[in-house]
Design brief:
about 400 residues, alpha/beta, Transcription Regulator spoIIAA, Rossmann fold, seven-stranded mixed β-sheet, six-stranded mixed β-sheet, 20 strands, about 25% strand, globular
Length: about 400
């Protein structure tokens, strides 16, 4: 293809031969001219052999690979990739399901589209670019999405103000690029919820906890439940459907608490089992008694990058130690980390240390991860970011 050429240093093509989709800036020997951010470039070995093509961007990850074939990145490319992604969601039963119209359609590298996230909420798809290249291609992606999801998606909302590098000065704004709808109620496993794609975190809801919420529902019967960092209350209304005796939702954001109350009311209007508190998590854990026998700890990412890892692990230890200290005997703890730089081993060690500090007998019931609509590319293990443990505390 007639794209600007980027040549790698000798030996730096090895990771690409193993289909890893990132090229770091230090691996580049030279470039033809100065590619624009977001431009598609062709990658060549030091021996001048084509190896891949992808989006160029200034920064540590210089190229995100779109294809290991010498093919044009055009409308048919986007159509093909989105069709494959949709077929996968149909195959795993989250799409075309009368009980569920909420799922992730594109999960970046996991769907061979690094830098792109698309979540579907009923008739609205929320598109999020995490690379300049995907921002540049947003209208082509939207056109392909309209074709692939014809009859399913009627609105496409673009939400990338906070996910793109500010130095690129793209002047991006959130808003509908197709359709437009005030109807923000979606369905997950038969439960309704409001999605705040306008101002909410991520694309408006944490789709990645769907399977873990369903698991929690099975454990909720007759229990007193505490949902920490509740955001929009996903775990709370699943616990209520599971027959919880009482459910308390806690988040530092008053807006999140409003959404939680709205979501509980959508599914259980006038139900007195639920109360919500806008309060700092650690303060709440300090002052609460020992009335809970099912606790969910699902904090935001404590570490966005490796420099913050040490502090993050301290945060996980401290948080889990509080839960172990306060949970009733025979209690169940659902505890999570969504930080990509915190590995499964890091997280387990932090939780184990907290358990040992409490002196209580603790057993692992389940080891959790992200659901199948957040697939991990086998060549890109970094894509496995969500870790969770379900623990029985004597």
């Amino acid at each position: 293809m007639n794209y600007r050429k980027v040549y790698l240093k000798k030996g730096k093509e090895e990771s690409l031969k193993r289909f890893h989709p990132w090229v770091f800036s230090g691996a580049i020997q030279r470039m033809e001219g100065e590619p624009e951010e977001g431009e598609v470039v062709s990658l060549f070995t030091s021996e001048k052999q084509f190896i891949a093509s992808g989006h160029y961007q200034i920064g540590s990850i210089a190229v995100r690979v779109l294809s290991f074939q010498d093919e044009p990145i055009d409308s048919s490319f986007w159509l093909k990739r989105l069709s494959v992604a949709y077929q996968l969601r149909c195959a795993i039963g989250v799409a075309e399901n009368p009980n569920n119209n909420t799922y992730r359609l594109v999960h970046g590298e996991g769907d061979n589209l690094p830098g792109l996230v698309i979540d579907v909420y009923g008739k609205t798809a929320v598109v999020q670019a995490h690379s300049v290249g995907m921002h540049v291609c947003r209208m082509e992606i939207a056109e392909a999405l309209k074709q692939v999801m014809a009859g399913v998606v009627e609105n496409i909302y673009y939400k990338s103000e906070t996910t793109l590098p500010y130095k690129a000065e793209l002047g991006q704004e959130n808003g509908f690029i197709y359709g437009g709808s005030a109807d923000n109620v979606a369905l997950e496993n038969g439960l309704k919820f409001h999605v705040d794609w306008l101002k909410g975190q991520k694309t408006g809801f944490f789709v990645d906890q769907r399977e873990n919420r369903a698991l929690l529902e099975r454990y909720a019967k007759g229990r007193s439940v505490l949902n920490m960092f509740c955001y929009t209350g996903g775990f709370s209304f699943y616990a209520m459907r599971g027959g919880a005796k009482l459910v308390h939702s806690v988040d530092s954001s008053a807006k999140a608490i409003d959404l939680t109350n709205q979501n509980v009311a959508l599914n259980f209007p006038g139900d007195s089992r639920h109360e919500a508190y806008a309060e700092d998590a650690f303060k709440y854990l300090d002052r609460m008694g020992d009335q809970y026998d099912l606790i969910i700890l699902d904090p935001p990412a404590f570490a966005k990058h490796k420099d913050a890892l040490r502090n993050a692990l301290q945060g996980y230890r401290k948080l889990n130690a509080k839960a172990f200290e306060k949970i009733k005997p025979g209690g169940i703890l659902f505890t999570f980390s969504c930080s990509q730089v915190v590995t499964k081993d890091h997280f387990r060690t932090a939780v184990f240390t907290a358990a040992a500090m409490s002196g209580r007998s603790v057993r692992i019931l389940h080891q959790l991860t992200q659901p199948a609509d957040h697939p991990v590319n086998i060549y890109h293990p970094e894509g496995e970011y969500l870790k969770g443990l379900v623990l029985y505390v004597e």
